[in-house]
Amino acid sequence: MDAQFKPHIIAFLCKWCGYAGADMAGTSRLKYPPSIVPIQVPCSGRIKMEHVLKALTNSDGVLIAGCHVPSGCHYVSGNFKCLKRVTLLKKLLMQIGINPARVRLEWISATEGRKFARVVREFTRELEELGPLNLAENSGGNRDKRE
Amino acid sequence: MLNPSLTTRKERIGVFVCHCGRNIAATVDTEKVVEEILKHPAVAHAEDYEYVCSSPGQGLIEKAVKEKRLTGVVVAACSPSLHENTFRETAERAGLNRYKCEIANIREQCSWVHEDVENATEKAIKLAKSAVEKVARNEQLEPIKVGLYKKALVIGGGIAGIRAALDIADAGFPVVLVEKNPTIGGHMAQLAETFPTLDCASCILTPLMSAVVHHPNIKLLTLSEIIDVKGYIGNFHVRIKKNPRYVDPDKCNLCNNCVDVCPVAVPSEFDEGLSLRKAIYIPFPQAVPSSYVIDLDACLGMNPIICGKCADPDICGPEAVNFDDQEEIIEEDVGVIIVAAGYELYNPKNIGEYGADKYPDVITSLQFERLLSPNGPTAGIPKRSSDEKIPKKIAFIHCVGSRDERHQPHCSHICCTYSAKHALLFKELVPDAEVYSFYIDIRAVGKNYEDFIRRVQEEAKIRYIRGKVSKIYEQDGKVKIFAVDTILNKRIEIEVDMAVLALSIVPAPSIEDLASKMRIQIDRNKFLQELHPKLHPVESATSGIFLAGAAQSPKDIQDTVAQASAAASKALGILTQERISHIPTVAKVYKDYCSGCGLCIPVCPYGAIELVNGTAEVNEVVCEGCGACVSTCPSGAIDLKNHTDEQVGIMVRAVAGEI
Known about the structure:
The complex is a heterodimer.
Chain A: E1 9-14, H1 18-27, E2 36-41, H2 49-57, E3 61-66, H3 78-95, E4 103-107, H4 113-130
Parallel strand pairs in A: 1-2, 1-3, 3-4
Helix pairs in contact in A: 1-4
Chain B: E1 13-18, H1 30-37, E2 43-49, H2 55-67, E3 72-77, H3 80-93, E4 101-105, H4 107-111, H5 117-137, E5 144-146, E6 152-155, H6 159-170, E7 175-178, E8 193-194, E9 199-200, H7 201-214, E10 218-221, E11 224-232, E12 235-242, H8 257-261, E13 265-267, E14 276-278, E15 280-281, E16 293-294, E17 328-334, E18 336-339, E19 343-345, E20 362-364, H9 365-372, E21 393-400, H10 415-429, E22 434-439, H11 449-458, E23 463-466, E24 469-475, E25 478-485, E26 490-496, E27 498-503, E28 505-507, H12 511-518, E29 545-547, H13 557-575, E30 580-582, E31 587-589, H14 600-603, E32 609-612, E33 615-618, H15 628-632, E34 638-640, H16 645-655
Parallel strand pairs in B: 1-2, 1-3, 3-4, 6-7, 6-18, 7-10, 18-29, 20-27, 21-22, 21-27, 22-23
Antiparallel strand pairs in B: 5-30, 8-9, 11-12, 12-17, 13-14, 15-16, 19-28, 24-25, 25-26, 31-34, 32-33
């Protein structure tokens, strides 16, 4: 394992909860690794799994943060739609030999800055253990071992 | 990808990097960000400044837009939740469309959470690039404007619906008030006196009922139900079924002859089954509209061989009784809807151990309310159903079915105070009575309620026992109550003459059907769900539909009236506009790609999509822009304006450092 490896994370944050939670982490001056770069989406239910796959070809892991189930979603049920898709995507990832732990779905409310920072730290540590994904450069050779 | 006409080639984006004093500049090398972002082919201008949000900072943006002929602006600064609107207004002043301005959040999600300058700067550059890529592909959009029907529909004629209807009608707008029962007034009409002031309920309610029926702006439809609701804010089309009354309220003069001759007697709903009414009846003397109604299920029928006595011209002089009355379908176009569908008591049969359905002297709180009422079945002196005797020992049981995971997990909010009121009123009528009150906690939250409870406990000498009743049964004319006193930690067995159950407040069973017709959410206890518990307490998730009264959560008359007036004022906020504005960042269908599979229709939480001529069509006024349909469409035929798949794809590449 490369001790210097710093995983790169792309985060899809829903505007109402996940993104606001990340803002809260900022206003609380909580620290987390800079390897995560966010993209704001209107709702976790907006995220196409193609987007997640696309993000995986350019990163080592994808974080999705939406509003808490069951009733936190600003658009009623987008969080459930996202949950279903991510569950399916994880099965697909397993089939193509990518560790499904590289995609992490979390419910983070606008007040949970602390949780956001903790999740990023945890996820970064997990990805450090998993090592780089390098899908773009090497489609096939360097995939995760089958679970 | 679907919109190849959108290219970034002609775009000239300006990027303004804010120092935010040292908030950003201490961790992000803003000069480096400017230097790097200038290498981007779409960026025509970039500069950093101490406080971009300040007046001179905004001036820099305006100046650059004009001098450098910029087509879009990115401000790399604090979170969009703070100043997105500020900078969009700046962009508008400079002559740009407000959607040609995007924020790169390099403070809350960069400088404040990272310490290493090199890494934070690198991330800030990625964020700025991602915003540049997005804004370059943003469409110029204007808010959607639609006309509206300046009329309101109020569902439910209890105190909530009455208050809301009167408020809107008094402001000069027409209101259709729909009530499923033969009269308006709701549960409040059944009450004897109201806490904590002990005003007589009828005295404060009946003038309002009368005001409704005489108001020139209110169209009252009793015995009526909603069939369906179509449309959207400002433009709802509602179909209402008006059931026949069989008595013409305009002709009826309330002579009571029909009631006298009617041979059929059935339990009175108004008196909660404690008295009998005829098949032709008026629910209570002050009912509105002031007319009899025939209960067709109880009526023997119009055939003169069987009965038809009430329709005899010798009995009904004005010939108001009309057996040929037909059900009517009424269609209304309204701009706003207020749902005030009210509540019911939890069915006591569900709580077998208390035996309310078996024992005549174990009654519900609403029944006791009728017994206390001067126009009730016992003329205001509570008597036992079993032997007509005035009880000398009585127990009030709180939280019957409430705060109980086996029944209703919620607190019914009003029972503590009304049970205290019952105890006090009863003690005033029967001063030598022994009165017990079994409670879990006393929750008397409301103006002057605590004083009221204290007065009941201390002056009226009501014995409050903290503990849950485990079993009630009636034997040899005595009601036996088994309980545990959780303060003294001992078992209690007492014999009383009457037990009154403060049953849980639950929404009417029809609420689920009504909610689904209007696309309103319901919560875990089946009450109507407000849009936000703090900030939007009277709005439903469907714009233009508002909530009032106990259908939203159990509440007392004070809160109900306050909420009804709040809902009315929100409704008036819409009705007073000439046109309604709606966000333009909505879903858009590329018809050439749409296969008409219809998968997008059920995923839309707002019912904004329908198939028209075999392809999906988005009603832009109803769409809230969540994008659920976009991620569902298997053909990529729907996209979200200014958050397109192409934009997400390119932003992914930008944040990955590929661009």
